[in-house]
């Protein structure tokens, strides 16, 4: 009886996923799991036990959640950064790293700072400069239209570069009457929009800047002139601007899998900034510049993570699709869990790949 139990335990261990450590009674169940999990070296990973997690939120729960892995929790409490969740060599190294990892707020005195820089209405974009940015962040603020003021109308837009410099900023005159200025959140008054830039004019300027002289159909993430666009909830912002842009060039912190909830729903920008950057946004009147800076900082943190370089990093790559077919073949059932993981690829485009462009 003990021998049989030992054999079953050994077989279950053999059927343990090398990434998330789930155990399966049968090998074919492990193979099926690997087909749909898309584990890869681009997933957030515990610095202690090396467990792969689908999102940083899942990793946070693994380390400090209601039911954490105790060994990992103990080590993280002494040597883990609470912002990027990295494990450092010593508590002192952790202290130094965490001070650098935490950003300071850009909210204090923001209106005064922007006015002093003369960017309260920077309606011109210099997109011919050789130093023109390759990556930019965009954010809009909405006022209300319609009989009940619930229809979002873009009334202010801001674009920044990777160094938090304002590239473009203007108030926008909506194409229909405003019935609710939402002043408590937007800080926008009727006089701000009286002589503001018409929506069509703003749309054209932004479109030309993003495309950077390249036809829309030709824009691609690597080797092209088009700019990578960063933001939070960009689908909504672009819709309100009546602007189209290739999805391959969009980096949305609301839809990036590692930054989403374990339920696969979006986190708010307020939560992401507090949890991963260490400061608060949306305190009082909200400024689009503040949102641009926060989303760009989140993007930069994700982009410069160190992951293994792979020739074909995506499951959708033609080279890897043949492997997906092979998941159904018997020879894969003879592979070890580590060998299965070695050919598994991500189902999303990791932002670290932008650094290779």
From TrEMBL:
GO biological process, any: rRNA processing
Domain of life, per lineage: Eukaryota
A single Gene Ontology CC term: nucleus
UniProt keyword annotations, A-Z: Exonuclease, Hydrolase, Metal-binding, Nuclease, Nucleus, Zinc, Zinc-finger
Annotated ranges, domain C2H2-type: 15-44
Key word Lyase present: no
Intracellular or extracellular location(s): Nucleus
Similarity remark: Belongs to the REXO4 family.
Protein name: RNA exonuclease 4
Protein species of origin: Brassica oleracea var. oleracea
């Amino acid at each position: 009886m003990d021998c049989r139990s030992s054999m079953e335990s050994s077989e279950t261990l053999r059927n343990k996923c090398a990434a998330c450590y789930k155990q399966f009674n049968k090998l074919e169940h492990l193979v099926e799991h690997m087909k749909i999990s898309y584990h890869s070296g681009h997933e957030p990973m515990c610095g202690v036990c090396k467990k792969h997690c689908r999102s940083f939120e899942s990793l946070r729960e693994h380390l400090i959640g209601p039911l954490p892995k105790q060994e990992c929790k103990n080590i993280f409490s002494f040597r883990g950064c609470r912002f990027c969740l990295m494990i450092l060599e010593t508590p002192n190294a952790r202290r130094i790293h965490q001070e650098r990892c935490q950003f300071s707020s850009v909210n204090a005195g923001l209106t005064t700072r922007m006015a002093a820089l003369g960017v309260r209405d920077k309606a011109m974009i210099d997109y011919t400069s050789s130093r023109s940015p390759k990556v930019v962040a965009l954010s809009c603020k909405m006022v209300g239209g319609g009989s009940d003021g619930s229809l979002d109308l873009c009334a202010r837009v801001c674009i920044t570069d990777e160094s938090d410099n304002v590239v473009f900023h203007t108030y926008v005159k909506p194409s229909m009457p405003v019935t609710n200025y939402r002043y408590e959140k937007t800080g926008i008054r009727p006089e701000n929009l009286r002589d503001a830039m018409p929506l069509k004019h703003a749309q054209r300027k932004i479109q030309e800047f993003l495309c950077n002289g390249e036809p829309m159909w030709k824009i691609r993430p690597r080797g092209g002139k088009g700019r990578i666009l960063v933001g939070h909830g960009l689908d909504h912002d672009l819709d309100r601007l009546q602007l189209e842009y290739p999805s391959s060039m969009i980096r949305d912190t609301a839809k990036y899998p590692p930054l989403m909830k374990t339920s696969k729903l979006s986190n708010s920008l307020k939560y992401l900034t507090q949890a991963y950057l260490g400061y608060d946004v949306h305190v009082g009147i909200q400024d689009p510049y503040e949102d641009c800076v926060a989303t760009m900082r989140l993007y930069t943190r994700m982009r410069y993570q160190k992951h293994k370089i792979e020739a074909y990093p995506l499951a959708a790559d033609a080279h890897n699709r043949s492997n997906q077919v092979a998941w159904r073949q018997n020879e894969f059932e003879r592979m070890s869990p580590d060998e299965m993981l070695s050919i598994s690829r991500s189902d999303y485009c990791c932002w670290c790949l932008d650094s290779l462009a």
